[in-house]
Amino acid sequence: MPKSFRLKLSLLALAGAVCTGALALEPEPGVVSTELLKSTTAWDGLPIVYPAGPAQLSVQRINLAAGARTGWHEAAVPAVIYVLEGGVEFRRRDGQRLQVQAGHAVAVPARELHDARPTGGKPAQMLIIYAGAEGQKTGVALPDFEGGGATRIGN
Questions:
Q1: Phi, psi at residue 120, to the nearest 5°?
Q2: What's residue 19's pLDDT?
Q3: Which residue ranges of the chain lie beneath pLDDT 70?
Q4: In the prediction, which pLDDT does 73 show?
Q5: C-alpha separations of 111 from 26, 44, 56, 64, 65 in Å
Q6: 116, 69 in Cβ contact below 8 A?
Q7: Which of 23, 104, 119, 148 could hold 87 in an S-S bridge, CB 3.0 to 4.6 Å?
Q8: Residue 140 confidence (pLDDT)
Q9: pTM reported for the whole predicted model
Q10: 54-71 pLDDT, tens per residue?
Q11: Beta carbons within 8 Å of 98's beta carbon, 6+ residues apart
């Protein structure tokens, strides 16, 4: 069998194995990969919709002091929030609530009015990953329905 034919046959077999998932990339010893979130909808069931334009990811860390709150706001783009420390309660204007503890992630839809506050009388820390478009703001401050003014989350 000619060498070039064997090479083509080997490449074809490799491509077939990759396409069928027969080759799994194994992590190096001591590396553990844990999927934290995979979803087509946000925590409240709304679909995740990406904005048009050149993609831009941005990451922000939010520290919430005990008793603090973000104020009512909308994410202008879809986001994933990972709670680093403490617990956080997310509220929608319609009263729907979700509590998320450290080590867990939640998907947040664009254009959904919400507020967040730490739980248990302790501070909390969140990491927010925005999936937006170049030049687009990530957060939109809105009037605070509970007093205290509007708050902007994101840029």
A1: 70, 15
A2: 41
A3: 1-26, 141-155
A4: 87
A5: 39, 12, 18, 22, 25
A6: yes
A7: 119
A8: 74
A9: 0.71
A10: 999 999 999 999 999 998
A11: 43, 44, 89, 90, 106
Which residue type does 97 have?
R
Residue matched to tokens 């997310």: 90
Burial of 75 (0-12, 13-18, 19+ CB in 10 A): buried
Tokens of 42: 């946000």
pLDDT score recorded for residue 28: 84
Is the distance from CB of 97 to CB of 89 less than 8 angstroms?
yes
Q: Which tokens in the block code for residue 69?
A: 């709150």
Domains of the chain and any CATH numbers: 55-141 (2.60.120.10)
Tally Cβ neighbours within 10 Å of residue 18: 10
Closest of 104, 108, 103, 102 to residue 124, by C-alpha: 102
- Transcribe the chain into DSSP letters: --HHHHHHHHHHHHHHHHHHT-S-PPPPTT---------SB-TTSPBP-PPSSSEEEEEEEEEE-TT----SEEESS-EEEEEEESEEEEEETTS-EEEEETT-EEEE-TT--EEEEESTTS-EEEEEEEEEETT--SEEE---TTSS-------
